[in-house]
Specification:
With about 375 residues, the protein is of the alpha/beta class. It has 14 helices and twelve strands. α7 links the parallel β6 and β7. About 5% of the residues have low confidence.
Length: about 375
């Protein structure tokens, strides 16, 4: 299951520095001027998963294959982006193609790094970005309304459903609220998603703080956390500069460096976990001597649906899933021990896969 997260913010808030750390490359320029990112940069990143290493060690797996997540570094938005200001609409389109949006908020003061608005105020920055996205959504919805009304009057049920959702979104947006605050009936979830609204996407607020505040944040990041709670969003504190430094260290150096800062793990690990939680995702594993692999699925997926993530034939011909809970696999030192202890379960088509399940699928071709 592909997951794509847009990294969005005003110029000079640390987006490209964060992106470089995420991808451990220098694909995106991190320079002290607006629009240093001329084309949206896309980075394919391994999802940190300590459980995968444990499973591989037990099974003697020759290869470890983690799940992947895509991050898109979008050029800095400015006032008027919805009308084409700055680099404008092409980057709004880039955001539209993503599953979630990570809003990077500058929560540090540094006189050597200019701010496009001439001050450091993360809440105001978020307001500017959210306003531009809402204006873009309003324009998009208003263009569709007339045609939908005609079709709905003609008895088109699908158009009538879409029109009702458009009106629901417009109600939120005209009140100055992002579309994700709307209460959508579960039966309309797919049609709602098809509207492709920028402000309906799950949002994660990334508080970029100075090095000394990387562990607990600061007053500015606290304000952003309150804003996130009010906006049905999540927030995470991170120091993009620290992450950029950590990214180039080997494992031993990384651990030592983080310990000196009072951090148990890189902030990027928290960022990716929050992105997963935001989209209701979880992980199951396939383990053997050849490879140990993590697979990303949505919470609530059944065994056949989860098998289909590997290959559609697995879902079509699903017979059963040999399943061991992660804790039991580790405690009993692998598949053989789990079988002997009666902890390997044979699950059928109705089984809802749990996070951390170790699975082997039986299917007919």
């Amino acid at each position: 299951m592909a997951l794509k997260v847009a990294i969005v913010g005003l110029p000079n808030v640390g987006k490209s520095t964060l992106f470089n750390a995420l991808t451990q490359t220098a694909q995106a320029q991190a320079a002290n001027y607006p629009f240093c990112t001329i084309e949206p940069n896309v980075g394919d990143v391994a999802v940190p998963e300590a459980r995968l290493d444990v499973l591989a060690a037990i099974a003697g797996s020759k290869e470890i294959i983690p799940a992947r997540i895509n991050f898109v570094d979008v050029a800095g938005l400015v006032r008027g982006a919805s009308k084409g200001e700055g680099l404008g609409n092409q980057f709004l389109a880039t955001i539209r193609d993503c599953d979630a949006v990570a809003f990077v908020a500058r929560c540090f003061v540094d006189d050597d790094i200019t701010h496009v608005e001439g001050r450091v105020d993360p809440i105001s920055d978020l307001d500017i970005i959210e306003t531009e996205l809402m204006l873009a959504d309003l324009e998009s919805l208003e263009r569709r309304t007339t045609a939908l009304e005609k079709k709905a009057k003609g008895g088109d049920k699908e158009a009538a459903q879409t029109l009702a959702l458009v009106k629901l979104a417009l109600e939120q947006l005209n009140a100055g609220r992002p579309a994700r605050k709307a209460k959508v009936d579960p039966d309309d979830a797919k049609a709602w998603q098809m509207l492709q609204l920028l402000t309906s996407k799950p949002a994660l607020y990334v508080c970029n703080v100075e090095e000394g505040a990387a562990d607990k944040g600061n007053a500015l990041s606290d304000a952003v956390a309150k804003r996130a709670a009010a906006d049905n969003a999540k927030s995470v504190v991170i120091s993009a500069q620290i992450e950029a430094e950590v990214a180039v260290l080997d494992a031993a150096e990384r651990t030592e460096f983080l310990e000196t800062l009072g951090l148990e793990e890189p902030g990027l690990n928290r960022l990716i976990r929050e992105a997963y939680a935001l989209l209701g995702l979880q992980t199951y594993f396939t383990v053997g001597p050849k490879e140990a692999r993590a697979w990303t699925i949505a919470v609530g997926m059944t065994a056949p649906q989860s098998a289909g993530v590997i290959h559609t034939d697995f879902e079509k011909g699903f017979i059963r899933a040999e399943t061991i809970a992660y804790a039991e696999y580790v405690r009993l030192k692998g598949e053989s021990g789990a079988k002997e202890a009666g902890k390997m379960r044979l699950e059928g088509k109705e089984y809802v896969v749990q996070d951390g399940d170790v699975m082997h699928f039986r299917f007919t071709s």
